[in-house]
Amino acid sequence: MSAFHPAAELSRDERPVSRRRLPAALALAVATTLVVSAFGAADPLTWLLETVWVMLGLPVVVLLRKRFPLSDLLCVLLAVHALVLIAGGHYTYAEVPAGDWVRDWFGLERNPYDRFGHLMQGFVPALLVRELLVRTSPLRGSRWLPPLAVCACLAFSAVFEMLEWLAAVTGGQAADAFLGTQGDVWDTQWDMFCALVGAVCSLLLLSRAHDRALARLTPTGQK
Fold first, then answer.
1. Are the beta carbons of 125 and 153 closer than 8 angstroms?
2. pTM for the full predicted model
3. What CA–CA distance (Å, rounded) separates 194 from 113?
4. Model pLDDT for residues 82-111, shown as the tens digit of each residue
């Protein structure tokens, strides 16, 4: 496996044109989808609360693209996660059509899109945390790297659940669409468990591919 060192990262001009175009294309697709999703949203407040993460994260990635370009794999995953959030915001998580199809197909009691959203809440941030730690800390290759990435995802999931609790306290019934509990008293616990499963699965399935993607950020032939 090629070693990765943050000091050896390619500048924007040194990276192959095809790789420079991928993040730009993904950013454009996410931004366009975000704008379109605002029209006809089922609940404007829910749309805002669910998509605010995209509104905050996308500009950060774009502004830091020269100083700290992300790996192509992470860019793709972040774009997919953004689309998941946007769909949940547009329809509300309990009413996403794809979730209704899955519910009817498998005879489930509830629309499972919310569970999928929280699975992604662990799956994608796990790779984001991993990339940040590999590139900015001495933890590359450490056995502590995977558990710390999982713990970071669980911490974020817990904070998100507290934000949902705050929305319920301040918004009352107006926040029901945002909460998306669908009558499940254990919804909070399920959400955090799904984030945990997503984070673990992400690291188990994608760590090697992520290492290869990180290696492609170094000059050709450098070890």
1. yes
2. 0.83
3. 12
4. 999 999 999 998 899 999 999 999 998 889
